[in-house]
Amino acid sequence: MQQLFYGLSAVPGVGIGNIYKYAPAATHAGPADGRADIGSPEEEWARFLAARLLVDEELARLAQIGQAATAEIFLVHREILHDSTLTDAVRAAIDSGSGATHATQVATSELVKLFQDLSDTYFASRATDIRDVGQRLVTRLGGITSVRQLNPLPNGTILLADDLTPFDTTHLDQTHVVGIALAASTPTAHTAILARSLGIPLVCSAGMEILQLQNGMFGVVDGIRGRLLVDPYEDTLEQYKLTRARLQRFQAEARSHSHEPALTPDGARIPVRVNVNSRDDLLHIDSSGAEGIGLLRTEYLFQHRTSPPTIDEQLAAYQEVQSYTNDHSLTVRLLDIGGDKPVQYLPQPAEANPFLGVRGIRLLLRHPKMLSDQFRALVALAHNVSPVSRIRILIPMISKMNEVHRTLALLEGIPGYEYCRHQLGTLEVGVMIEVPSAALLAHHLAPLVDFLSIGTNDLAQYTLAADRINSAVATLATPLDPSVLRLIALTCEAGQAAGIPVAICGEVAGDPSVQPLLLGLGLNEISVAGPAVPLVKSAIRQVDMAAAKVLAVKALQCSRAQEIHQLLHEEVAL
Ligand code: PEP
Ligand code: MG
């Protein structure tokens, strides 16, 4: 009997094989933790320092041999290793009589817990990094690690775990693991970044139930739709085998054309850009073939600090980002904090529903200095870019017309804005359509701006009243619901009527199979995660625009998301 578990797609691809459940063994206390073996606090501290040195050398080596993105991860791990919060906690535990191994275990697990309790996905993934560093230290201190459980593994292994640390991921038997399904974790965690660079299909947030499955069961990791199937029906399995073979051919082919434009057979030219969430992401832009950055989530520049970046710091950061675009356009989204992304230095009253609270532009308009500083940095950037580049400012979380009016009024008052916008032509302004009211008012919004960009992650959340970080309602919030598609269609019509382009930058845009629907609905530009760029470009090259328009009309007549999925499968056979 087939079992199906829904999760989130973190690394696309299909893995077929046998389940191996990985539960990191509780790290054993090393020999020095038997009471009789504990040395004096100075001896235990010296053991800790010696282990730390070895781990530091190991991380430095790993940073050198890996790709650029993975190197960054190991550099972050080196920072954690030397962070005083960790070392002070180890020292305090040693001073109160613990052995070095036990002190390290306790200090790291307390820090991990602290980070896990913060409802911020960035901090949640840092918890994994701290656990990873702790594992390395404990290994060097003589504790038993889980590495032996992960290497070697039988051929065709589907690895199931609650979560994996980057340490686990770098130690797993890459040649034999064909797919990974995690009960927890998120597509932005470092584990996902590593799995992506290893090319192993990964589904995360699949729920704790997957940990009840037995070793040896037969399964499929569907990293495209974010699903784990166990004991699949015969015909489903056959379809997945075909998909896997097709994907392999498709990926190889797509990569070989990634630097060519995405042109449909009827001549429609669709810019495919990349979403950038961190400095790591910049390193892949060139190889992905992206034609610029379609969404720079600037939150990473503002979080994990004690004060906001100055105008000069922001300008330097944006200049660095811009240097990776090859003079293509750079869409910079204004700071979108609030919701699940708080910052320490802007204390906000506790909100029962932060996603419905003071988030994005609502927050910025309450902190006009922060907003105008970001504007000043962006105008300065636009002032110095080459005339062929464009800096596009994108306003998040618009739900009312007056928010756009107030934001534009502030921007118009920034020295140099008019010059960049009207003389140099290097500055544009757009609005994110991610709240249903904005989609319904798109015909009023479009004439005020240069472009619209649809954020389907939030648009689905708000349309279907399904919290995007609550896995219990994750399946409700599909952007392929007919209600969401109608809002997308309205937005595209508004863009067309005003003669401005409409982009999409939500996660759904990274799925090659939805491209005919997106183009049929009237989207003009696509922005996706780096690894999806070549695949999306390839998919666009196959789209017959006339057929895509018919498909979109059919999809808009559907009453259920399942019917739309069905339509897409008919269009793009698995
Ligand atoms: C979206 O909402 O679809 C979007 C792209 O923005 P974010 O995921 O950063 O909220
Ligand atoms: Mg959003």
Task: Provide a descriptive summary of the structure in words.
The chain is an alpha/beta fold and 574 residues long. It folds into three domains: 3-25 and 147-234, Glucose Oxidase, domain 1, CATH 3.50.30.10; 41-144, Orthogonal Bundle (Enzyme I, Chain A, domain 2); 260-571, TIM Barrel, CATH 3.20.20.60. 48% of the residues lie in helices and 13% in strands. It contains 25 helices and 16 strands. The strands form two sheets. An eight-stranded mixed beta sheet has the order 1-8-7-3-4-5-6-2. The two termini are 22 Å apart. Mean pLDDT is 88; it is low at 26-32. Bound molecules: phosphoenolpyruvate (PEP) and magnesium ion.
Total E-strand runs: 16
What is the straight-line distance between the termini? 22 Å
The portion of residues forming beta strands comes to: 5-15%
Into which percent range does the helicity of residues fall? 40-55%
Structural class: alpha/beta
The CATH superfamily of the largest domain is known as Phosphoenolpyruvate-binding domains
The Cα radius of gyration reads 25 Å
Count of separate DSSP helical elements = 25
Q: Tell me, rounded to a whole number, the average pLDDT.
A: 88
CATH architecture of the largest domain: Alpha-Beta Barrel
What is the name of the CATH class of the largest domain?
A: Alpha Beta
Under CATH, the topology of the largest domain can be stated as: TIM Barrel
**Largest sheet strand order:** 1-8-7-3-4-5-6-2
Sheet with most strands: 8 strands, mixed
Number of domains: 3
The coarse overall form would be globular
List the keywords.
574 residues; binds phosphoenolpyruvate; TIM Barrel; Glucose Oxidase, domain 1; eight-stranded parallel β-barrel; eight-stranded mixed beta sheet; globular; alpha/beta; Enzyme I, Chain A, domain 2; 3 domains; binds magnesium ion
